[in-house]
Amino acid sequence: MTGDQATSDSSARGPICPSCRESLRGNLRQEQVVPQGGFAMAVTYCGACGWTLDCVPARTGGPMRHGPLPLEEVAAPADEQAIEGQFQLRCRELIGEIRSLGFDPNVWVAMTNDLGAAGAARKLLADHHELVVTPWLVRRGRPELTLEHEIGQPRWAALFTDAERDEAALRLARSGQTPGG
């Protein structure tokens, strides 16, 4: 199978498991797990191979759900007129577009809700953490929907340092490369 066939095939199948390469559409599973003496955790995994994709504290206060948890919404910014608020609104739009393609960037959403969109972006850059959605979007020819691309936009120059914009551009360039290539 050529690279082009693999890309078009996998984009038609939606997100794929990084372990077994099977489509997660129809194979995505979630369970609540309570380790002995621990707190309840919501574990998201591939139903085909069991690969853990996400593990977060479980929501409490209701019966255990079977099937996927509802999508967490991106919180409204404290001040929609401030540049930070405008960036958060833009990230909310990007996340909506990404979800329409079949991928839930739940880590990005959770960090945005905890730290604000600009704070989340800075933390991701400082911690050298790349969102899983970035290479997924680049492989599908949609780099303009990535957080890294948005950081580099001139309208956000006051939010990010030159070093942060350079790091975002480098990550975006690297995300299109295949491992070992």
Question: Would you write up a description of this structure?
Answer:
The chain has helices at residues 3-13, 83-100, 106-115, 117-126, 133-139, 147-151, 162-175; strands at 28-33, 41-46, 52-57. With 181 residues, the chain is mainly alpha-helical. It folds into two domains: 3-57, no CATH class; 83-175, no CATH class. It has a three-stranded antiparallel beta sheet with strand order 1-2-3, with no helix packed on it. Residues 1-10 have low confidence and may be disordered.
Q: Roughly what is the average pLDDT, rounded to an integer?
A: 82
Task: Please state the CA-atom Rg, rounded to the nearest Å.
Answer: 17 Å
Number of strands: 3
Main sheet attributes: strand count, strand direction, barrel closure = 3 strands, antiparallel
Instruction: Please tell me the total number of domains.
Output: 2
Number of helices: 7
Contiguous runs where pLDDT drops below 50 for at least 5 residues: 1-10
Shape: globular
How much β-strand is present in the residues? 5-15%
Major sheet: order of its strands?
1-2-3
* Helix content range: 40-55%
Following the backbone from N to C, one meets helices and strands in this order, namely HEEEHHHHHH
Secondary-structure topology with pairs:
Elements: H1 3-13, E1 28-33, E2 41-46, E3 52-57, H2 83-100, H3 106-115, H4 117-126, H5 133-139, H6 147-151, H7 162-175
Antiparallel strand pairs: 1-2, 2-3
Helix pairs in contact: 3-4
